[in-house]
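Q: Hi! First time doing this. I have a protein sequence and I read that you can turn it into a structure. Is that right? Here it is:
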Amino acid sequence: MTTLHDMRIAILVHDLFEQAELASPKQALEAAGATTAVIAPKAGSVTGLHHDTKADKFKVDLVLDYARADDFHGLVLPGGVFNADALRMVPAAQAFVKAFEQAQKPIAVICHGPWLMVSAGLVRGRTLTSWPSLQDDIRNAGGTWVDQEVATDRNWVSSRKPDDLPAFNRTFIELLAQHAHA
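A: Yes, that's right. Below is the predicted 3D structure, encoded as structure tokens:
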């Protein structure tokens, strides 16, 4: 089993994210030995969704304004339409993801999560997957969209939907382990 001891992973969300896309990677990363931190624009808690039904609340570990990419080894961007649409409009979220990209740290993005990457201007020249309705956004931003369970492109791992989470988690953990030994 791959171990990620001493690695700290940021999970950036806004309210109304797809719960499985936060909970499953968080659990897999922690099982591999990493420490995770839920980061959001506001303190307190954020609410997950199971498709369009409100689900559980998750404690916010760190407010986005105080988060620094230098303090983390990787980043997870869960999806969910409401979450991704709100997060892409937050300048601090765009700056946060740009800092991970500039440092070439591993980034895992799923479902509607790539909207933030599009808004941050990071998709040009990249190959990734997402929820199918984002394919025009990705192509119009200069990226290549593929319809597959998981896509990797340098320091990025992307997947389409909750059904892809086992492959998404496994691939991201492998990428983090490679970066830890680089």
